[in-house]
Design goal:
8% strand, 221 residues, mainly alpha, 6 helices, rod-shaped
Length: 221
């Protein structure tokens, strides 16, 4: 009987501790939609991406013209002339591929620029989350934006608006992103890409066009 009573008491204590642990979640996409600095950073990154992508595409257009000219004049050229023309084309192809890797590859200029502009904002959000969690005695904070396995969330556990207030921002004042740029390029493992009608031009990937923020929740602390 004593043993059973001890087990029941222990089980009750564990249940009490478990229920005493408080959880919460945030929606970082929703939070970022309120941060003017983030929208400006995204606009700058997208502008750079579009500019570099245009330069790379221009290089491949030049290559296409050179290849067409070589095909048309090939029969009139000596072996030495054909070899030199082909070497010029190959050199320009490599130059375009190198630029694509430099700008859009893993740890390329676009990645570093995004880190430079966005990381301070992420750090600010993380610090605000920590302060809210500490004040509200929350043990664990989930991010709804990055957890696709969160099938259901109770709004009363959403501390996103509290985080915004801690950052000095007003919930509901969603900032529209300035323009939609295109981010092109490939990772290091796929820097060659394709071009219309060929296989050597860069493939562009869509840039971040901003999040589709949810409607602000009412009655939140």
């Amino acid at each position: 009987m004593k043993k059973s009573a001890f087990i029941i008491a222990l089980f009750s204590m564990v249940c009490f501790v478990a229920t005493a642990q408080k959880f919460g979640y945030v929606d970082t996409k929703y939070i970022l939609s309120h941060v003017p600095e983030y929208q400006s950073a995204q606009a700058e990154v997208n502008k750079l991406s579009a500019q570099w992508q245009k330069e790379i595409e221009s290089k491949y257009e030049t290559i296409t013209k050179l290849e067409s000219a070589l095909q048309a004049e090939k029969i009139l050229l000596t072996e030495e002339m054909r070899r030199k023309r082909q070497e010029e084309i190959d050199s320009k192809k490599q130059e375009a591929k190198d630029m694509q890797k430099q700008k859009f590859g893993v740890d390329g200029e676009l990645f570093r620029k995004r880190e430079e502009l966005v990381k301070p904002i992420q750090d600010q959000i993380y610090e605000a989350i920590q302060e809210v969690a500490s004040t509200s005695a929350l043990m664990v904070i989930f991010d709804k934006a990055n957890h696709s396995n969160m099938l259901y969330t109770n709004p009363k556990h959403d501390i996103s608006d509290k985080v915004l207030k801690k950052m000095g921002l007003k919930p509901g004042e969603i900032i529209e992103e300035e323009g939609d740029g295109e981010e092109g390029g490939e990772s290091e493992e796929g820097t060659e890409g394709t071009k219309p009608g060929g296989k050597d031009a860069p493939k562009g990937t869509s840039g971040n066009k901003g999040t589709q923020p949810r409607s602000p929740q009412k009655g939140k602390g």
